[in-house]
Target: histidine kinase
Amino acid sequence: MTEGLIDPRDSLERQNEKLLKITATLMRRVEQDTDASGLAYAQFERAVLLEEEIRSRTRDLERTLDLLNLSNAKLAEANRETEAARANLANAIETVQEGFALFNAQDVLVMCNSRFGMHMPDICADLRPGLRFDSYVQLVSSSTALSLPTGTPPTTWAARRMARHQDRSVMFNVRMTGNRWVQVSEHRTPDDGTVILQTDVTDIMRIQHQERERILDDQARLIRATLEHLNQGVCIFDQQARLVGWNRLMGDLLSIPIGRFRIGSRFEGIFERLRETFTFAQADIADQVADWARPRTALGDSSASAKTTADQRARAPLSFDIQQGATRVLTVFMQDMPDGGFVISFTDVTAERQAARAMSEARDTLEQRVLERTLELEDALQAAERANASKSRFVAAASHDLLQPLSAAKLFVAALESELPDGAPQDTLHKAANALDSVETLVSALLDISRLDSGRAEVHVAPLDLDDLLGQLRDEMRPIADIKGLTLRLRPSRARVLSDVTYLRRILQNLISNALRYTDQGGVLIGVRPRHASVRVEVWDTGIGIAERDRGRIFAEFQRLNATASAADGMGLGLAIVERACALLGHPLTLRSEVGRGTVFAIDLPRDAAQPKIGEALLLDAAPPRPAAAQLPQLIALLIVADTDLRQALSLTMEQWQIDVLPCASEGEARTLLAEIEVAPDVLLIDLHLGSNLSGAKVIEDLRRDLGPLPACLMSATPSPDITTLAQGLEAQLFTKPIHTEQLRSFLNDLRSPQV
Model:
């Protein structure tokens, strides 16, 4: 009846208020309207119903208020417990002896104890909840209590601190003013907040410093004890020739009271006492010693550059004898130290000298002494042979490791040549290629020297056409001559000689290269003169010539007459290789020279007995024109090289030549790849050394057995007659590392693709 008058969405108080108004209104109408139709009674009845509903709503309202009061009481209790927990947490962190701070996940300071930042009183008042972490770092970096490292501004320190804040856990020490240290520990919480602890570790750092000083003192005592136990007198001087250490035996040997030695005593004073007491075995050795021990900074100019040069001067060890009285002899040894100081040792060799004199006087023991000496020499010879064999093994092993990356580098440079624009990039690339060529030349020369010195170099003498060899060398050297503006001529002969083609090529290559290097005007002439049973090859130049006094040392290693030449002009190994190789082959080597006019090197080669004698041909052999680079046919090349850099370099080079390359590191990988793509290659390029003692020659044989008689190339860093024979037996092309791109291109250009 009242549903349309009351809105259920109103509160109970509002609904009761409406009901009371309705009841009052109805009661007034009842009192005013007393007609006989009975409306007054009906209105009274409604009022009674409304009053009952009001009581019901009032009771509901009272129950709701009771529930609300109960909820408010529980909420108040929870707030009291929260405040109590927060107070307990604050009290707990306040009892922590270290500085404590908690930042939330938004890097805002939530709470900290009173010890947080206590080491920085100038900013301590600013460390309050609500402070952002980056602002905290800026405050610390600008604090006057922070002792920053020399050369580190506050901004740099703050940037590094913020970078470390990204880590989950950080711990580091910070130096404060007053020689105090604080350890900062920073850790992430599970909700990605940050906890920071600041611990004063000054006492710990001080103890560590004291421990280091104690260790240094112990080391000093150990060194002094060691010096005292030596059976030699020893004294140590610093860079300024001031005494810094000695042992007691030195005073006994020199007959100088130990009390006269003081830290900082000058060498000159001690040496003067030595000259007064002892006689030097050599007349001028005393002056040499004084000059040798002179402080380095006192030499030459006092400017910074002169001082640097003097400090870098290396002093060779100096050894001599001094004698006191008629019999006492001391051996003195002076040795430079890396820091510029030096050490002097005194050894009493009186007994040894007396024993030597006694042995020289005992002629009847001469045979025994000779035998003993012979045995010693045999032991030394065996040791030398073992060392030489070890060196040869090392060179053989190192050659592969040296030439492998060098070959890869040259191929990468060659691959870049077609991709870089002209100008500065191309010039830089050419310089890099020239530098790699110099390295290749030096490594090859060192390997040749090692093989020749080992006494185990293998020689394979066979007939060879001299014109072919000289023509190839002329073509190789002509660009060098053109760059220097020199003429390079060849007067050939149709002679055939007996020699090892590898070593003979190296001999003639070094002679021609040496002639071009030391010739600035004119040119170089290569001539061939027939003799009775031999052929003489002569290399003439119009260079600086060789003085008589220098002709003995030009064949030694690392000797160059032109001291101003750069390392790119050679390392002085060419003529050393020539002399050793000629001696190995039995080819007489002669030299004629005149200073300022030029030099002639001549080699006598035995003539091939199967060839009839012919007259000397003096016609100039014009260089054949070089064929133009042809477009390579479409090929599929299977490349198996264990070294990653060399494999990538060869792949890149051949792909630029429009060749499809299948690069693999092993035979197993190659077979897997071929099975997947179901395509047979047209050519095999296999490294001889594939690791784990696996031979590339065996891989070629296995692949040919399964894929057919494919053309193959075998690559090796250690060329030898055995490897040459192995390649010939496989009918495979042999390439030595570093691999020359033109040789590789020529080999591939001669092949025909199965599709053509």
In short: The mean pLDDT is 76. The radius of gyration is 49 Å. The first strand starts at residue 99 and ends at 103. The CA atoms of residues 251 and 260 lie 9 Å apart.
